[in-house]
Amino acid sequence: MPRKKTVTAIVLLAALILIGTAATVPPKSNFRNLKVLPKDISDHQLDSLMDSYNRALKVSCDFCHERVKDNTGLTPAENAPLDFAADNGMKENARRMIRLTIDINKKNFNYDTIPKKPDHLLNVITCNTCHRGNAFPSHE
């Protein structure tokens, strides 16, 4: 009988911990402000896509995402967390570039979202097609 009480207590404790953890994790929508990308994109897919943008433009996340401002309204410290959901001019420009890339691929390369073999990827443009490792593409 004491063993049954111990198992029951452990199960209840685990359930309480799980409920407490779930209650403290804010919903994804608090971190996202997706206007072009699919709203149901997974965290892993979104992180991977953002990493590809960083590599193509040789920039870091703070190129498009501003730092969280405190209630003083002063310029945030360099180590302040990024406000991924906040809109700004650079994010709007990035959204225009994403729409442009999608549009060019759909109109010219019969683009779809099905993963392709590497030899078929040559028929699609990406950020790197124009940027080639530069934050702002050259006009040459």
Total of DSSP H or I helical runs spanning 4+ residues: 4
Number of strands: 0
- Outline: extended
The SS-based structural class is mainly alpha
Estimated radius of gyration: 22 Å
Mean pLDDT over the residues: 79
Terminal residue distance: 81 Å
Strand fraction band?
Answer: under 5%
Instruction: Describe the main β-sheet briefly.
Output: none
Low-confidence segments = 23-29
Number of structural units classed as domains: 1
Order of helices and strands: HHHH
Helix share of residues? 40-55%
Outline the structure in words.
The protein is an all-alpha fold and 140 residues long. Helices cover 45% and strands 0% of the residues. It is extended and about 80 Å long. The model is unreliable at 23-29 (pLDDT under 50).
Secondary-structure blueprint of this entry?
Elements: H1 2-24, H2 43-57, H3 89-108, H4 127-131
List keywords for this structure.
140 residues; mainly alpha; 45% helix; extended
Brief summary of the model shown:
By secondary structure, this protein is an all-alpha fold. It has helices spanning about 1-25, 45-55, 90-110, 125-130.
